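Readers of this paper often ask what the protein records in our data store actually look like. Nothing more is needed to write down the fold, since each code stands for a local backbone conformation. Below, we set out a record of this kind in full and without editing:
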Amino acid sequence: MVKEEHDKVDVLINNAGVNLDQEYLPANVKATIDTNYRGTLNVGRADSNRSRYREDKSDCRQMCQTFVPTLSKRGRIVNISSTGSSLSGYSKEIQERFRSSKMTLADLEQMMNEYQEAANNGTESRNGWKTQAYGVTKAATNAMTAVLARANPGLTINACCPGWVDTDMGNMLGRPPKTPGT
């Protein structure tokens, strides 16, 4: 539809984010993965609660991969991430997997499935994960961004971590900086 209405797209900005960690339950971990990571990657229809994507993803397409062919020669994709994406607190093995220059989208999906399974079993820490789904999914967003950038060297594909933002989620995490603009 976009290609039919517009010849080329110059910029795609993905800004999917929820933080349900205050009630850290397997269902909320899944909803966070589906929104923050898969929501950035997939085009899908939200269910009536708008909290998670429908289980039938047959009509979903890869958001970034769908837009790559429609981007202009100097096009860019910006994925909004978070300072919560820091890899400190993970096992060395998980850190290396997130940073791997050989990572594929399939590898990353496998990692998210492993994290979901660990959350379901309550074994996140034992398996090297953080027990904060928000941070895990934003680390996955950063890794996905790196995979897409390597696969599309002619485009500018990056992620940014804007810091504290005056939103309900930002207020959950703390107060604004004392000095504006920092």
About this structure: Confidence is low (pLDDT under 50) at residues 43-61. DSSP finds seven helices and five strands in the chain. The longest strand covers residues 71-80. Strands lie at 9-14, 42-43, 61-62, 71-80, 156-160.
